[in-house]
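Write out this protein's structure.
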Amino acid sequence: MKAALILSTDIETSPYAQYYIDILTTQGIEYDIIGWNKHYPIKHEESNFYFYDLISLELQPSYRKLIDCYFYSRFVIKHLKSAHYDYIIVFTIVNAVFLSTYLKHNFDGKFVFDIRDYSPVLKFFKSRVKFLINHSSINCISSKGFETWLPDGKYTISHNIRSFFLKSLYPIKPFNRSCVKVLSIGGLRDISESERLLHDLGNKDTFTLVFSGDGVAKVPLENYAKMNNISNVLFTGRYNKNDEPMIVYDSDFINILLPVDINGTSLMSNRFYLSILHHKHMIVNAESYQAKYVRKYNLGVVVESGDNVCDKIIEYMNLFDAVSFNNGCEECLREIEQDAGLFEISVINALSLH
């Protein structure tokens, strides 16, 4: 048996592919990875990697992005026709929509539809997405919050974390109340909520703001900090993935404030899982789906739209109970681990039918 994983970007920015690779490897199933180097050309030495090289700028008009997606889908179909696969795993709504007709005719009931986040194309292709949901063998979503905007259907939760890491033990660093570090880590894409954080915590004596990572928001945020003479902020840029545990360890809070829009209020951020694994207090919007977990397990600060973030953090620290917090992290991890087990069983069962 042989499977193909069809990414919507390059392998480095598709960590969720590894969740399936882990299962395919343990089941002894051969696989190829088909992807798109849309940001810059990357040379891969692996014989089972097939990547399309076409630069697609993040800030270009939507119609131009869709044209690029169409040409990528032609590349994928051409490769699928030249090789033999028994099973397909296709990621993201846009990717699946452009491949839907081919999947229906050639892999009906023999593909996973994995939905990682919201896509604006859903407004125009809702019937096509429903079509895909009806013809796949499994529909996976990275957050149960997605069910609020997806068509009715049966969905399996595929959390943004490998099962392997759920068993990892990381050292717990106690609060340093005289110097509280608030970390924003990973892709820096949102400007408005990060500016809110800078505004509310900027030049506060006991706080240090750290932005580790890169993205379209990095330069605007640097400019905002400079224009407002904010001195307690550091922008450390891209980092080596192996250094991530130490960067997180050195922090006290992890910022997960997101835009109050359909995607930001329904997703589960990678930072959420980093916070849980490392027992770090998180800062989330009250409107976000993640706030349900934070409230249920007492995991950090929930910020309403009119709140001052600094005041909410200080209030949280004054009422902080270490035993309740650490127990909450462990209980939340157990729930995620149960979901991960169900996801693995669902994928294995689907593969065993083919």
